[in-house]
User: Which sequence fits this backbone?
């Protein structure tokens, strides 16, 4: 599934980790602030490793996420596909942004994603979410540098082991 | 761009089909089964942590807790004795009236799995599944009131759709006046909406809503919610009310799954979907509600029976939820 990019086994492991973090029980107050882990992981592999560059791949990941979290079938698929499209559009530029600018771009992507999710929640008859729901992109951006460093290190180690 | 459009459209079609229910139900069920081992794996460390914590909790605290529970058990037993007497009396009276017998509700306990689904999916995962005989549509309650009903059944777990799901509708009756109506989920875990009440309905803040037993899915008489606000907007056809569910929809960990006998027996007893069990209560409720103009309207009866057959308990999955909606609007046009 990794296509022509790098990653392979490590990528699958991080994706599984993403699902784990998404389903992990959190205390009720923190619950709405849970970052969109899988989006972060997908963004990482797309930007840094050049894998996961097909809309179809993220569509499938999104569907899987919908099945596991009990949301409407296609909801996360839609949000991830749109995110991936924007990412691909600006990929050349994003890759060479300084880190803080990259983080800002990711923040914008995640906020956009929240808007899409809100739209779907609204269509299915839900109420306006608690305001902390909007903190999730901010939490995600705070997590992003650490995740970035961790994944980079893991990837380097894997490459060294191979050679 | 074309590929984006393709996937966006595909996602939207899927969402619509899923929202309407039925169409992608089979796919969902299969995919759920495939995903279940993963859910169990995610839960495992947290279940283990909870058990370890239990093991290391203080002995004195445990003893105190045990004493408290024992006390509670004794009191509950005593109260149950009185209830049993009442139950027997009730059965005798029903026999005298030649009313049909109430189905004996059996139950099994269930616990929430330590998995957080999306809070806007209005679903929780319990640790009972088809291997424990759980079936789609079984009512789920906690110590305080109705929580929801079983939605998807996996092998060792099942998802329960909460009353608060905007797609969920359940027939209720007001305890004090026996007025029947439908409580819709509002999308918030602390609120239900009653949106199709007649303007002159006899309803007060603090009134208790119970399951009416119509539709045959929930047994009659379970506490559901307490009315917290009533609005009678001028110029509109219906009054609105809001109610707060008794059960803590986002907090209850221990649940009971009720089963009203096997659904096949149910169907055989019912004939073509008309619920004989509740027919008695139905007619009893009628005379009291005569000041209600909607009740004098003969077409309301059609609408009600329509709702009944739609909400046939044997219907798989969410048909009840989806189709219960048109009923009140139908009678609304008549008024």
Assistant:
């Amino acid at each position: 599934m990794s296509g022509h990019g790098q990653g392979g086994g490590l990528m699958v492991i991080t994706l599984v980790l993403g699902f784990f973090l998404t389903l992990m029980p959190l205390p009720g107050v923190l619950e709405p602030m849970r970052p969109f882990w899988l989006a972060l992981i997908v963004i990482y592999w797309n930007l840094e490793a050049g894998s996961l560059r097909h809309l179809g791949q993220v569509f499938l990941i999104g569907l899987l996420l919908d099945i596991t979290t009990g949301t409407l079938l296609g909801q996360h698929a839609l949000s991830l596909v749109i995110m991936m499209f924007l990412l691909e559009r600006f990929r050349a530029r994003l890759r060479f942004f300084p880190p803080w600018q990259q983080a800002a771009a990711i923040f914008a992507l995640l906020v956009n994603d929240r808007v899409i999710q809100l739209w779907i929640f609204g269509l299915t008859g839900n109420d306006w979410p608690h305001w902390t729901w909007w903190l999730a992109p901010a939490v995600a951006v705070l997590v992003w540098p650490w995740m970035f460093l961790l994944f980079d290190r893991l990837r380097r180690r894997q490459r060294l082991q191979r050679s | 761009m074309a590929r984006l459009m393709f996937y966006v459209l595909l996602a939207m079609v899927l969402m619509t089909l899923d929202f309407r229910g039925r169409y992608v139900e089979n796919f969902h069920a299969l995919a759920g089964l495939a995903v279940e081992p993963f859910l169990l794996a995610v839960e495992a460390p947290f279940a283990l942590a909870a058990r370890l914590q239990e093991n290391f909790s203080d002995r004195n605290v445990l003893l105190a807790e045990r004493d408290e529970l024992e006390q509670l058990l004794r009191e509950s037993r005593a109260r149950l004795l009185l209830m049993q007497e009442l139950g027997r009396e009730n059965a005798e009276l029903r026999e005298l009236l030649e009313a049909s017998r109430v189905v004996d509700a059996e139950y099994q306990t269930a616990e929430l799995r330590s998995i957080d689904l999306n809070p806007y999916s209005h679903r929780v995962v319990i640790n009972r599944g088809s291997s424990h005989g759980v079936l789609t549509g079984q009512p789920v309650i906690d110590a305080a009131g109705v929580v929801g009903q079983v939605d998807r059944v996996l092998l060792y777990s099942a998802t329960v759709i909460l009353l608060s799901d905007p797609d969920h509708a359940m027939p209720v009756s007001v305890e004090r006046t026996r007025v029947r109506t439908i409580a819709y989920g509002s999308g918030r875990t602390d609120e239900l909406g009653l949106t199709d009440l007649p303007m002159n309905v006899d309803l007060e803040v603090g009134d208790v809503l119970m399951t009416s037993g119509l539709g045959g899915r929930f047994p009659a008489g379970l506490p559901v919610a307490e009315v917290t606000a009533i609005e009678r907007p001028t110029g509109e056809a219906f009054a609105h009310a809001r109610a707060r569910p008794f059960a803590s929809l986002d907090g209850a960990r221990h649940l009971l799954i009720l089963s009203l006998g096997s659904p096949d027996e149910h169907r055989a007893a019912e004939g073509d979907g008309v619920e004989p069990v509740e027919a008695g209560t139905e007619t009893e409720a009628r005379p009291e509600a005569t000041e209600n103009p909607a009740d004098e309207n003969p077409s309301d009866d059609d609408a009600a029976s329509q709702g009944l057959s739609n909400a046939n308990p044997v219907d798989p999955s969410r048909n009840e939820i989806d189709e219960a909606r048109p009923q009140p609007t139908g009678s609304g046009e008549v008024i």
